[in-house]
Sequence to fold (469 residues):
Amino acid sequence: MQLRLLLAALLICLASLSRAADITRPNIVIIFADDLGYGDLGCYGHPTIRTPNLDRMAAEGMRFTEFYSAAEVCTPSRAALLTGRYPIRSGMCHDQFRVLRSRSLGQLPDSEITLAEALKAKGYATGAIGKWHLGVPQFNPGGHPRKHGFDFYFGLPHSNDMDPTPVAPKGAGRLAEQRAEWWNAPLYRDDQIIERPADQTTLTRRYTDEAVEFIRSNKTKPFFLYFPHTFPHTPLFASKDFAGKSPRGIYGDVVEELDASVGKVLDTLRQEKLAENTLVFFTSDNGPWLIMNQQGGSAGLLREGKGSTWEGGMRVPGIAWWPGKIKPAVQRTLASTMDLFTTSLKLAGADVPGDRPIDGLDIRPLLFGTGTVTREAYFYYRGTRLMAARSGDFKAHYMTQSAYGQPKHEEHTPPLLFNLRLDPSETHNVATNNPAVLGQIAQAVEKHKAALQPAPSQLVEVQPVAEKK
Fold:
């Protein structure tokens, strides 16, 4: 009898220790919008798009004013977030083919360690819901999210405009009125295509339902949810509950539905009593697609947008939320999507890979208000070209190129120099008065280049279209 009681007490003790271990491993949710601009949310100054849930998230948490995607377009920015490395290190960039296409054979290399793989090794349940764009499973099964650490996948393999049908007019993605018969995007659940064409008017709602179910199904263990939305990348579609409701038109409808999605995720965490043990981070893969006119977003006071290495192309919204851990604050220190890799591993008690350069920093001191984070320099790549570099408040442009419409980059000798703290719109070149600053940034660039080993690009090879007989 005494032995049974002793064993029972031991089992209870072990169970308690197990639960305590899980509490020290927080849940991590990363919500990644597509082509959302720096100025597209109410908490970042938009006057007509209503984003009450994200505004509340920012008020309760930390809103970053200088948060950066590691690339100016989709594929490389996603590779950087999931690996903590500049895309040139993984080969997920190219100067001509800037993203994976609908028939691409390339993929995020198996040699890369994704955030999902590293967290799964620590006992996390892992799910990816939304746009993948790091491999096309139809033509290369090795490019599927489940081959890169995710237990579960629901979403589109690439951008929603990459499967136009023969009846789609030229430039269909820019048109205010969209028709279902113009698009043939495949919707995956795990390894199977369950719908083609995907009903894009229901995507945000269905993604959200899947995210809520993933959270509830894994609430008894630590989980990592990577939630990369399809929108507001064009073509734009909203559900009947949001279509035609925003003063900003269809773009506003789409963003307001994304905001509602964020609200449901946060409400679910509260309802399941998981909020105090969950870090949620909301951001965007790059700046707004300005050439889409009213179907594109806004970079606010920043220069240019998606596709460029001007600030509007890579500085994006960044909001961190963790009740009881992250105090309400506005954070003006530079941080990056690559930092989410390193920070998440540190929070989970996982080792940061030591066999390769990791560009993401541990920003826990910023999130928790315990200290500062020192970054020697931040590098702005467009494809394989290092276009600009920032150190402290100053950004040097060695090359510039408009996002679209400028066929060749322009080199600058001496480099253009902007004080981003004083001039975030990059309108006043102060190179003449700051030769020492240019010298300091040049040293950081040379140090970076000397240690860089670019990987072969994964973005070139595609599956040929079969000839009609």
Remarks:
- The radius of gyration is 22 Å.
